[in-house]
Specification:
The structure is a single chain. The protein is mainly α. The radius of gyration is 22 Å and the shape is globular.
Length: 430
């Protein structure tokens, strides 16, 4: 019998793991630019920033293995390559972005020092923490998230009660799609497949051994975490929309968040939030570097040398990439996200579906179709878009960077028809 207390504790843990400080800069920016049509970007954003990531945790509740187990049904070679790409993206984009967010939110406004100095000190400290796995980090993490949530609730409530006379006009061509693509930038679908494995192992260590008990607990806890994320993200998007006429039109995502907090909490509240966000960014980066180093260590038969080398390389990359502006890192991340996010989404969905709907044949067909038809979405950020015009016209939804969706659905349905047909033939022949 699983206690309700255990469910709520796990739910809060999942929420804290997903609720990265870097994600805070995304919803207000969406709200400001969508204005009165904030509902559309809200639904698009929660689809890829909440729904799919939570399904990723559900997938692990079914599989109850690690990230490799999610893709091995398609092919062991593919799954190994997928793991490598996932961890490579983790240490080259979201981890360095935390340094950039910390600099723009907490260092630059007060000290005016260079971003390179910030990222150097930042990742030097990260390396020290990763090497020592200090308990101080977990203590910081436990207290930071509740405090940040309290501050955000205050911002949201003050924004809601501000009763603005007008909202800014929507600037997005298709707000719903803009919300979906901005949700990619949370990296939470990737986080979902990484976090799910951590949750499964943690529950085992806490004495929850049964497959059914783990699945039930994770499912209920994920619903709690997902509800919390929807409320926070929705509140921030609405806050950005409500105060859109008061926020900097041409401001970056960090500038919009700072302006929003200044409009609601004043200068002191903004300063406090900036420091907390910087600290929360730090804990997120330590988690990414530690997780990546653990994975490489396991690949090399628990070699501590492999762990140290991976941590060192990750931190060097963090210094080199982390001194760039947040807006630049977000823009540079788009091609990688267009490549890895569609594959991650289909792997999550296939692992959630019942076994008879997700055979080996279906896995391979859907993953291959997704990979092929996401290539134009990936390439258009690297080469001139006019060179892809004919290809974009041929693939439905390609103009919205969602060209993989319909082919993946069609292949899924066709291959399931083939699978069911083969099963009927086998039954008749027997």
């Amino acid at each position: 019998m699983i206690k309700k207390r255990e469910i709520w504790i796990t739910g809060f843990a999942i929420f804290a793991l997903f609720f990265g400080a870097g994600n805070l800069i995304l919803p207000p920016f969406l709200g400001m630019n969508s204005g009165g049509e904030w509902w559309f970007v809200f639904f698009g954003f929660i689809l890829t920033a909440v729904f799919i990531p939570i399904l990723g945790v559900f997938a692990h509740a079914n599989v109850q293995g690690n990230i490799y187990d999610l893709g091995k049904k398609a092919s062991p070679t593919f799954s190994s390559m997928y793991c490598f790409v996932m961890y490579l993206i983790a240490i080259t984009i979201p981890a360095p972005r935390t340094a950039s967010v910390a600099h723009e939110m907490a260092i630059q406004p007060f000290f005016g020092s260079s971003s390179l100095l910030t990222s150097s000190i930042y990742f030097l400290l990260i390396f020290v923490f990763v090497m020592n796995r200090s308990r101080l980090l977990s203590l910081i993490g436990k207290f930071l998230t509740p405090i940040i949530v309290v501050i955000l609730v205050a911002i949201i409530l003050l924004a809601i009660t501000s009763n603005p006379e007008t909202m800014k006009l929507n600037v997005y061509e298709v707000p719903f799609v803009s919300g979906i693509l901005e949700g990619y930038q949370t990296f939470d679908a990737i986080g979902g497949v990484l976090i799910g494995a951590v949750i499964v192992i943690s529950l085992g260590n806490r004495g929850v051994k049964s497959y059914d008990d783990k699945k039930s607990l994770i499912t209920k806890a994920s619903l709690i975490a997902g509800s919390g994320l929807i409320l926070v993200y929705g509140g921030l998007i609405f806050s950005g929309a409500s105060l859109s006429t008061l926020l900097p039109v041409s401001g970056t995502r960090t500038e919009v968040l700072k302006s929003l907090s200044s409009q609601t909490l004043g200068a002191i509240g903004t300063s406090f939030l900036s420091v907390l966000v910087a600290l929360a960014c730090f804990t997120t980066a330590v988690g990414i570097v530690t997780g990546t180093s653990d994975y490489v260590k396991e690949m090399f038969k628990n070699s501590q040398k492999a762990y140290v080398i991976t941590a060192f390389i990750s931190c060097v990359l963090g210094i080199l990439i982390g001194h760039f502006q947040v807006s630049f890192i977000i823009k540079a991340a788009i091609p990688a996200l267009m490549f890895i996010y569609p594959i991650t989404i289909v792997l999550i969905i296939l692992n959630v579906l019942p076994e008879n709907w997700a055979s080996t044949l279906v896995f391979r067909g859907v993953v291959l179709a997704t990979f092929i038809f996401s290539i134009p979405d990936f390439l258009k950020f690297l080469i001139a878009e006019e060179n892809l015009f004919t290809l974009k016209e041929m693939v439905p939804l390609s103009e919205y960077s969602l060209g993989w969706v319909l082919p993946a659905i069609i292949v899924f349905l066709l291959f399931n028809l083939v699978s069911f047909g083969n099963k009927k033939t086998d039954i008749i022949n027997s």
